[in-house]
Please model this.
Amino acid sequence: MIQSKEKKDRDTTFTKPLFRSPFYDFFAAQETEGQWYNWNGYKSPTILSDEELEYFSIRSTCSVFDITPLNKYRIVGPQAEDFLNKLTVRDVTKQNVATVKYTLWCDQEGFVIDDGTLFRISDNDFRLCSQEKHLPWLIDASHGFDVEIIDETKHICGISLQGPTAASILRLLGVNGIDNLKPFHLFQTKISNAPIMISRTGFTGDLGYEIFMKNNVANKIIERVWKAGSNHGLTAIGYNALNMARIEAGFIVANIDFISSDHAIRPNRCRRPDDLGLGWLVDLNKGFFNGKKAILNSKLEDSSAFKIYALEIDGKEPVEGSIIYYNKKDEVGTVTSAIWSPMTKKSIALAQLKLGSSKSNMENLWVEIYSLKELQYYKLMKKVSIVKPPFINLARRSACPPANY
Model:
């Protein structure tokens, strides 16, 4: 095998097994804890300084989080709308230009493959953002449609500004249009003559924006954003703080709160939209889409499958991964995500439970916890209450115009 003598030509797969976002050096410079993880093949921060302080920046001032590792697929062409209408469960013909919609896409059995956000940039130009990789599926599903599908993940980067001072920071940057930008809307503008796209979206249940740009302007943009946020409490955060906020908002994550159909080993682990509490996304009045027949048929079946529920739990002990029981003896499910919520001052969780439709089954629920005290574990049974998500509902999330702090 002939190897290049030029260092730049050498394969770095093993010397640098994880990609680095264009914002990596900036976030690494904020690091004091140094906890990182693999997100979609990128080296991403778990904690940069202090998990609780990072969380409170989301709720009290403003946070900046690197969303570059999100899978980003550009879908363009004369039949882009028709293709996406077949692919996803929502009616794309009803989505206006310059808006963003949360959506799902399913297999032919009506089981959820993934969820994500669909950006309609123009009539025939869309961007689909997702947690998991789906390029082969998108290409296969587009057969017969006059569309082009481009994987932009490594070419388009992004940051998320989340928190009550987010709009104030963008105003300082001279971004016109922030006052009139409604939730789930987007527009294209410039910062320091660098083209960007801003959407009023996020994963925290708070006032927030996502900024997308080409890699070559990333350093210029993040420097300007950081400087503008210096007097507005802007804090760089990792995944753990974001995760706390998304649980409070009642947002689910694929392959954490449910197993996507293309990851499930056992067929009974797959979930349909109703099982995830997302049946409201499905537009059964539109024409054919992947899984429509199966979803319709499932509504006529016994509702005894596992479903996702939002829970409040007595006490403060960690409950993630714990088993839920009915009447303290019959196992009915497990906790998938849980935190002690600083906003609600309660232990909250998302869980997969098999309860059926009987109201009595939704009462008398208990979680089994093993609490460590003085090097010994004690078994605790704590009362569980089913509640309607989200756990918090902040008025500033949808205020238009946002307050100026």
